[in-house]
Write a structure and sequence with these properties.
Strand order of the largest sheet: 2-1-7
Helix content: 55-70%
Oligomer: single chain
Number of helices: 9
Number of domains: 1
Radius of gyration: 22 Å
Strand content: 5-15%
Number of strands: 7
Length: about 325
């Protein structure tokens, strides 16, 4: 008798899928989702916990020994901990296991290195002043610079969906945030003549704010850019321009309100002392306007993420 096996096709391009495919091999469309796993099986909180322990041990060693060789490690761990955790969270939440960790890591590094280089060069040459128009200029430059870390993947057919753009954009933006935080931490460490409390406050504050800023804004732009691309090429339309302008405006308001509307939430530092553990949490000043602006960005990203991750209905022929 003839083979009457049921064939399943991609709802996006119509290509025939294998039974265990979660992504279409032709167009990259996300066609199936793995079963949900328990919290203890996720990696994001393990990365956060392990990174915090390593950062704490390095900071305590630096405070006890005063060895300047530990400074780069403290800066790297303190500035990268939250950005890396945020990317791992989105990676697992979107179940993008078709994207290699190497690709995610390279995007993180490219977004950080290329983004900071381009941003610093053009801001030094172009932007003057601290008004809202100058901040808009900073927003245009930095939001464009961060995209340099992710556009090299636009022609990869297997990374074709909006969800790919969101996660890869977040990686590029968080790479930028991590290197920028390292720079600020190093600068404040020098200005404070080696005061580790100041360094801890800068790294902790910027770490807590990082998911509300660079990573979210670049994820929004890259997600829409991926959704609107055609045949693996740039396709700039009003939706992509709108997403970019939204990121620029949020970025400019974030920077401008820091000086124009200095309203902060003051949180006192505290010390936890046990027999074998001595943990000091520095005092924080979290800017209320930036928190509000960050929540707006997170809301937009959440809407895009939900739009990009429905349970797709497969076509059976």
């Amino acid at each position: 008798m003839p083979d009457t096996a049921i064939a399943v096709t991609c709802p996006h391009c119509g290509s025939v899928l294998r039974a265990d495919d979660r992504f279409c091999a032709h167009c990259g469309f996300h066609v199936a989702w793995p079963a949900r796993v328990h919290l203890w099986q996720h990696w994001w909180w393990k990365v956060l916990l392990a990174g915090f322990i390593l950062y704490y041990l390095d900071m305590k060693s630096l405070a006890v020994t005063g060895n300047p060789n530990l400074v780069p490690t403290v800066l790297l761990l303190g500035a990268s901990l939250v950005p890396v955790t945020f990317v791992v969270f989105l990676y697992e939440r979107g179940a993008l296991y078709d994207v290699s960790l190497t690709t995610i890591a390279l995007t993180f590094v490219y977004g950080g290195v290329l983004g900071t280089l381009a941003a610093n060069f053009f801001e030094e040459e172009v932007v003057r002043g601290a008004g809202i128009f100058a901040m808009l200029g900073v927003g245009v430059i930095e939001e464009s610079a961060k995209l340099l870390g992710v556009v090299w993947l636009l022609r990869r057919r297997e990374y074709a969906t909006e969800l790919h753009g969101i996660v890869l954009g977040a990686a590029a933006g968080m790479g930028f945030a991590a290197l920028e935080s390292m720079g600020y931490g190093f600068t404040f460490l020098l200005l404070s003549h080696g005061n580790l409390n100041v360094l801890g406050e800068v790294l902790l504050t910027r770490g807590l704010l990082a998911p509300l800023a660079h990573g979210t804004w670049t994820a929004i732009v890259a997600g829409v850019l991926w959704r609107e691309r055609v045949n693996g090429r740039f396709h700039i339309n009003h939706k992509v321009i709108g997403a970019f302008l939204l990121a620029v405006v949020l970025h400019a308001l974030w920077d401008w309100t820091a000086g124009a509307i200095p309203i902060d939430i003051e949180t006192p530092g505290f010390v936890l002392r046990l027999q074998a553990v001595d943990v000091a949490i520095p005092a924080l000043s979290l800017p209320i306007p930036a928190l509000v602006i960050g929540v707006v960005g997170i809301f937009v990203l959440w809407r895009l993420f939900r739009e990009a991750t429905p349970l797709q209905r497969l076509r059976i022929v």
